[in-house]
Amino acid sequence: MARFQYVTQIEIDAGAVRLLPRECAAAGMTRPLVVTDAGVRAAGVLDRALAALGDLPHAVFDETPGNPTEAAVRAATAVYLEHDCDGLVAVGGGSSIDLAKGVAIAATHAGPLADWATITGGAERISAKAAPLIAVPTTAGTGSEVARGAILIVDDGRKLGFHNWHLLPRVALLDPELTLGLPPALTAATGMDAIAHCLETFMSAKVNPPADGIALDGLRRGWGHIERAFRDGATDIEARWNMMSASMQGALAFQKGLGCVHSLSHSLGGVNPRLHHGTLNAVFLPAVIRFNAGAASMIEDERLNRMAHAMGLPDGVRYDDGSAVAEAVRAMTERLGLPTRLSQMGVQEDLFERVIDHALVDHCHATNPRLASRDDYRRMLAESF
To answer: Is 92 helix (H, G, I), strand (E, B) or coil?
Structure first.
């Protein structure tokens, strides 16, 4: 049985951040905790969000790490409880939004975070007590602002997913003006994350026609605008708008499920939290596309040819073996100045077996169109190295 659920209110336009007071009131928030990071504060973006809040009482937690951890969730939860907050406003990239989702759990549900993770069966027990959340993304990548899940590194080092509709932000305020100051390298890495979501969820064999349509349109927007945003992101508001839309669409679609790209990225990102998730996705995509090309659902539904069309690759060519689509992704990654090999990111081969251990039990593993074995993951790692 297929289930489709699209319930998030989304506001996308320049200046959307000014809607914060209205949306806080609608969500019943009288004293929100604003969750952000030091970079967003330093760039002056936090000031714009706080100015929009006006005289609404609030507290601020600005110590979100690049890969949110259980320790950071505890620290932010302490601020939430100390200031008697009754809701959350996440202002930042996926890390800040996911950290806020962790606080939404921890502030209202007892026990260590791992007890509430998807792979432990705890996510189903997250209740309506979870603190309400409004998301104001400042990057165009993860799409966490419209997703029911969060990815957090728990105390034992595992990078786990937490998925429940009670974690879904009540409102997503997508303001492309907030991304105009995003540096080119971060524009590239987060943009490839959005593209990875659109590609990988479309490859999933699960049945969800609305998600497929949303993913293909998001892929078209992301692929067609990422280089413009990378090269002229400070002034090209159209490119920034389309990248925010691609990011949001990728996350709306990935309720269908992701696959081996994310199994590997989650695992390696847990082993080495300094590695950027979007960059890892870009590096793993070519090997996974080639691996997926032989899946029955990919062949029957001509998914590679449909992906190639959305990416604007030449018409009249068959893309069934995955090599041309994989090479297009690799070439785009290179043009954006990102590493295309794990070795360029300082990854050592002696980590591979540990990465495979965690990839095999990641929540994205089972929704890949081909079920990967240990040897398959080893080959994908070697191809990406």
So the answer is: strand
